[in-house]
Amino acid sequence: MAGKRKIQSFFKSLKVRLVLLFLIIGILPSAVLQVGILHSYETKAVSNRSIDILNQAKILVNQIVFNHYLEDTSSEIINSQLEQLSNIYDGRVMVIDGNFKIIKDSYGLDEGKSIVSEEVIRSFRGEEISKYDSENCYIEMTLPLTEKESKEVLGVLLVSVSTDSILLNKDYLQNSALILEVSCALVVALIAVFLAKKMTSPFYKMAKGIVEVQNGYASELNENTYTETDLISYRFNQLFGRMKVLDESREEFVSNVSHELKTPLTSMKVLADSLNSMENVPLELYQEFMNDIGNEIDRETKIINDLLSLVKMDRSAGDLNISSVNINELMDLILKRLRPIAERQNIELVLESFRPVSAEVDEVKLTLAITNLVENAIKYNKPEGWVHVSLNADHQYFYVKVEDSGMGIPEESLEHIYERFYRVDKSHSREIGGTGLGLAITRNAILMHRGAIKVFSTEGEGTTFNVRIPLNYIAS
Ligand code: ADP
Predict the structure, then answer these.
(1) Residue from 389, 439, 461, 467 whose mutation best tests the ligand 1 pocket (most atoms within 8 A of CB)
(2) Which residues share a beta bridge with 389?
(3) Of 31, 222, 244, 470, which sits with the fewest C-beta atoms within 10 Å of its C-beta?
(4) Span 321-344, pLDDT tens digits
């Protein structure tokens, strides 16, 4: 199994693939060329030899007919020419008469015997036939012996020539080509390994660079040999930067959480310690301190509850509990719940609904989001102030506007108000029971609905939060 994986990863390697590619590009064309050239050499050599023999044979045919050799085979000149043809081309020459009888065989083996082959019969019909048998390595030619005037075929001249010498030459060429090819392949292989190593080295450098960045020896990846590695380096640095920011914000969050949770505990410890250190404590003081301790416990509970809502929202980012909700009723209910707090501070709380709105939302999360906004508008208001909440919609979205006549938010704080534990005025916010998590929860809930939240504020005059949420839930 491990062996198989090793082989797989070997062939998956870019370096190995490049070597193979270079080898194919370097060697395949010469191999094809070799086969092609050797084949055309054989064809050309056989065709040249055939033409030579045909020319010689034609001369002989004329002389045989002219000297009436078929009737009398004793002609010295013809016999010597037959001999010569046979010797020069390392072949066999036979003269066949009109009765298919071999009257002359340069090998002297078959004289007097009959020969009835397809080629001989066709030549008796006047055809000149030339045939190359590459398996048995010979060229065979049959020519009709035709009387000039009467055009009568008197016999056939059969020439059979060995092509061994051509094939020997071809073998020699093939061996030379093979030697050349093997040497060439070795050189190509060396160059291929060198080039592949050089071409893939930026990727190895990049992997090493990533490890260095990971270990903190380098701050960023910079491998710009190729446009592609440059792009990957750029994207990696972007991603790594984002991870660093995330990591920092996580660390900050954890330290904030610890700090926030510790504060009420410290207060409680101080209160308890001072009670314990006193002797004969009057009951009223006990009650007062216990009341304070109770308030700190409430505060701790609120922070933990807010944190839990936030964490729950982070975790269930994908699974909102979506249903069709009457938003007018939902807004009514929120304001009804908050009215006692507003009344306690003499703040006028008004809801204005421009039209009936029904939307696909997570009722619990949206309630939490809007409640936080309206609660803030009441909490950070001035005595006798007002809070105007309005609900409107078009064909695509519904809009909630929460306007107050409160203290407003300083401009430099506007970009931070959605951060966890951020408070413009820490001590004031603590006094009125703020945890700094409310707007973070609100924003998360709205973003989960693919909505948007915007804030406008003038210090000393008031603040307006605009929320926009799609009427139909858009699944990711
Ligand atoms: P908190 O629990 O402190 O209210 P939030 O996240 O709800 O935390 O708000 C963050 C900070 O933004 C608050 O501490 C407050 O300073 C400021 N803020 C929020 N809403 C308003 C508002 N309507 N008017 C003035 N300041 C506000």
Answers:
(1) 439
(2) 351, 402
(3) 244
(4) 899 999 999 999 999 999 989 998
